[in-house]
Amino acid sequence: xxxxxxxxxxxxxxxxxxxxxxxxxxxxxxxxxxxxxxxxxxxxxxxxxxxxxxxxxxxxxxxxxxxxxxxxxxxxxxxxxxxxxxxxxxxxxxxxxxxxxxxxxxxxxxxxxxxxxxxxxxxxxxxxxxxxxxxxxxxxxxxxxxxxxxxxxxxxxxxxxx
Length: 162
Prior knowledge:
It contains five helices and three strands; from the N terminus they run αβαααββα. The protein is of the alpha+beta class.
């Protein structure tokens, strides 16, 4: 029985799974997006998000801890210099998994996993100011009343000046 066994073993030994996740995490950090099976993408998300959280605190101890998991100097440099700067204000949720369909050969579900802040297509455009409608009157009626209001304001300013 596998009671209380929370994570997906992915059909591999512990050492093979650790090496695979380490390599995939390094590739994700260096390339910002990778395509893999859905199960591996979900396992990688659980593996890499705590490492990104550690990279936000850029001290020596956290670098050593992250290097112990990744075993790749270039990936650690990229994580602490580039990625940590972009995700500095984000409180979590650094990765996104998007399903792509099934693989042709074995019908395995395929997905890509990407770092959220590095996707140009999904970047939020600055919101335009929201224009609120104050009344339900048509524009024509407003145009007719505009000169009347302007005359009322002029008479009010003249009365105040006298």
